Amino acid sequence: MCIYCNLVLVVLVVALNSQAHAGRIIGGHESAEHSRPYMVYVKGYDVNDEPFTCGGFLVREDFVMTAAHCKAKFYYVCFGMNRLDDNRTKCSSVKKDFQHKDYNNKTLTNDIMLLKLSNRAAKKIKRMKPIAMADKADNSPKMCLVIGWGITDNGKTSSKLMEVNVTLTDDEMCTEEKAFYSKGKKGPAGGDSGGPLVCENGKAYGVISGNLEDLTKYTKIPEYMDWIKEVMQPKSALD
Ligand SMILES: *[C@@H]1O[C@H](CO)[C@@H](O)[C@H](O)[C@H]1NC(C)=O
Ligand SMILES: *[C@@H]1O[C@H](CO)[C@@H](O)[C@H](O)[C@H]1NC(C)=O
Ligand SMILES: *[C@@H]1O[C@H](CO)[C@@H](O)[C@H](O)[C@H]1NC(C)=O
What we know:
The protein is mostly beta strands. Helices cover about 10% and strands about 35% of the residues. The chain is globular, with a radius of gyration of 16 Å.
């Protein structure tokens, strides 16, 4: 049964409502230059034109994956650099967002979203490369990497891309939840929301969703392959 996970989720919602877009890579180190060529910085503007930031990752030259709770009225997505002040940074607008239709902002279930870029900007930048997504045929991961520009140990957001390894919990109890969990002081939070959980085989297994203290939840990508394929088909019916 999933009682433990359901309890966790109730608590998670409380935390995310109060710090939806704040967060941190705690205990991490700077990513090596160009080592994460799929990383995307997502800047969103909410209905009140207030800016917020999330992470994201390129899954095809024209699609960025992020969290559903990063939905904005208007976006800029930027890529091609580790440091946000790098003058080689390129940004693109978003043609259309595809928030998962069953996303629930109270329980944060199905916290996954795809952004279709206005042009194939990423194709023009040699430093950019999409990351492969894990599907159900891939092994269950244990040790993974989380990456982002969220708040670090000093309490401030980082202008440098940071990363840290996390160990996923043995989630026998959580198999009904379409989520992975990690525990521990090291790891991400909301400001890193939307960034990838990259595991042993170099594939993206999860989307950083949210946390409470030392428990972090990730949307489990292999559970969403049908939806992803539907949205990303070459001539999307949803487009
Ligand atoms: C970008 O920054 C680098 C290093 O600071 C500098 O050498 C280069 O001239 C800059 N390029 C542009 C187009 O501003
Ligand atoms: C959450 O979703 C409900 C129903 O779709 C919507 O009415 C509400 O405005 C949403 N709340 C936030 C904070 O987005
Ligand atoms: C961190 O996790 C990545 C992805 O699973 C793995 O390849 C790497 O070996 C890990 N690094 C350490 C120091 O454990």
